[in-house]
UniProtKB/TrEMBL annotation:
This is Uncharacterized protein. Keywords: Membrane, Transmembrane, Transmembrane helix. Residues 1-34 are annotated as: Disordered. Residues 10-34 have a biased composition (Basic and acidic residues). It comes from the Bacteria. The chain crosses the membrane at residues 47-66.
Length: 116
């Protein structure tokens, strides 16, 4: 039995196209990351207080997630629960403000990228 070999160029062409798509995707991801870093740096230069507020909010969020210690309960006594509730309410309010600010900053960054 004899097998006939064919030299079909399509598989090689498909592999080449797949490689090109992968390279294009990698390049686009790299460019997007570089642009995001540049816009973040520019945003920080223009509005450092916004970034400070974001950092403060993230820190407060992490602190709010941590359980209260025995020492905190001993020092604060009966005021502990009331203070914890107040701090929790402030945290949730500030988190909402920070989310709105982050959303606004992201919208501006997207708009700036479209304008380029």
């Amino acid at each position: 039995m004899t097998f006939k070999t064919t030299t079909d160029p399509r598989p090689a062409d498909l592999r080449q196209r797949a490689r090109q798509w992968r390279e294009d995707g990698q390049r686009a991801a790299h460019d997007a990351a570089r642009n995001a870093r540049r816009y973040t740096e520019q945003g920080f230069d223009k509005a450092p207080l916004v970034f400070g507020a974001l950092a403060f909010g993230i820190g407060a969020g992490i602190a709010a997630l941590l359980p209260r210690t025995r020492q905190e309960r001993a020092y604060l006594g009966r005021y502990s629960d009331r203070l914890y509730d107040e701090v929790s309410a402030i945290y949730h309010e500030e988190r909402a403000k920070l989310a709105a600010a982050a959303d606004h900053a992201a919208t501006q960054a997207r708009a700036a990228m479209r304008d380029e």
